[in-house]
Amino acid sequence: MVARALERATMWTLSAWRDLSLDAKITGPLAVANAALLVANHTTVQTTSDAPLWRLFPSFTGLAWLALAVVAAAAYPYRDRRHGIGFTARDRWIHLAGIVVIFAVVPTLASILLRETGRPYTYVHDGAIMVEEAARKLLAGHNPYAADYLDTPLYYWPMVNNPALYHLTYFPFLFLVTTPFVWLFDRLGLFWDQRYLYLPAYLATLAVLPLLVPRVPQRLGLVALVGLNPQLFPFVVEGRNDFFVLVFLFAGLALVQRERRAVGALAIAVAGAAKLHALFLLPFLVVYFVAHPPPGRPRPRDLRGAWTAAWRPLAPAAIFLGVTFLPFLVADFPAFYDDVVRYNAGGAAWSYPISGMGFSALLLALGVISNPQADFPFAFVEIAVATPIAAYFALRLWREPRIPLMLGGYALTLLAFLFFGRYFQGNYLGYILAVASPILFLRPGLAPRAARRERRRLEAATR
């Protein structure tokens, strides 16, 4: 009897699944799974340790928020199955937006409020504090890479012997863009929280994503995949910078699709000036530009032509990167190198401890590495693994210059480099999954506008 009931339930579930639209097949299970993870797995740094998101809310309101998340998640596939085409595209966008607000926006605003009304080192990630204080160091006339952070709220952040007190691991654009906001808020006596930039960047990323794919179900599915990525959206709450990078990266890709190459490359360079992750896309972008010339131009046949094809669209990006990095490289190169390279790779006086879920954690668990502070030549392993992967995809991209292939090569190269590094955090995996998500929906070689032109051409040819 029980076996037959389970069989019937399974058959009904499979039948219901087949009847769902593409976006409901993605959004429903993903949202429901995240609703389940909200109970204990989706956590954020709070006062002295990490705790589930629902504990951000007082008394019974945390449970009410959980219940609302479950209902909103389950209602999407229910409405799709029950109403079919009556569940219009507008309704779907509104419903998905509601899920995003419940899951990510509300707890982020709660964290900001709790931090502002409490202590500045609680309910926030130490990386956000570091960027805020780096901006203040710059305003005070100090080089953020040569300074320490013992006189900032970072000193009280709940981590014993935090090496971030002595190293600024982030690229310059993050604190450069933050500096005018910090100056204004401090002058007005207002509390600045880095999530005032990161939360809009998260929402802007979700607004840019539909530009990458042509049809509404694909757009909804892509927004759900990235916006509800279980290894990414919870980190918006505590103030990590992944979506601040992704918004520029995806905007750049959308512009490149539309043959706005210089502006697109510049947007990707902005992402690279904020985080190393995005810089890995630039070599693939160079190959794509050379191998896939703009409409009406032949493919270059010599080095001079290849140089021209690459340099023209990439010149603004190169200038921007130079303006962003050179002042700090010239001012104190050893300090920059120690903070950005040696601190992350090992070899600094106080390097980042081995942690996360990558190759380094495996070596530590097996006893190959004695302790989390020990040095190990991870950089050689990273380069040895990532280089052949990058070369393979660059060669394929040269033969088949397609954006999905470019994204695939970028994602796998970045995965190899980060996984074999000193630490591999959950949001690193989330970032890689996010940049790979559009591949599922991109038709080879065609941007949305190009796809429409191709469709009109085929229709005219068959008349």
Molecular structure report:
There is one protein chain. This protein has 463 residues and is an all-alpha fold. Helices cover 67% and strands 2% of the residues. The protein has 20 helices and 4 strands. The strands form 2 sheets. It has a two-stranded antiparallel sheet with strand order 1-2. β1 and β2 form a beta hairpin.
Question: How would you concisely characterize the structure shown here?
Answer:
Helix content is 67%, strand content 2%. With 463 residues, the chain is mainly α.
Topology:
Elements: H1 2-19, H2 22-37, E1 43-45, E2 50-52, H3 61-83, H4 89-117, H5 126-139, H6 172-188, H7 195-208, H8 216-227, H9 233-238, H10 242-257, H11 261-274, H12 276-279, H13 281-291, H14 303-331, H15 333-345, E3 355-356, H16 359-366, H17 378-399, H18 403-419, E4 423-424, H19 426-436, H20 448-461
Parallel strand pairs: 3-4
Antiparallel strand pairs: 1-2
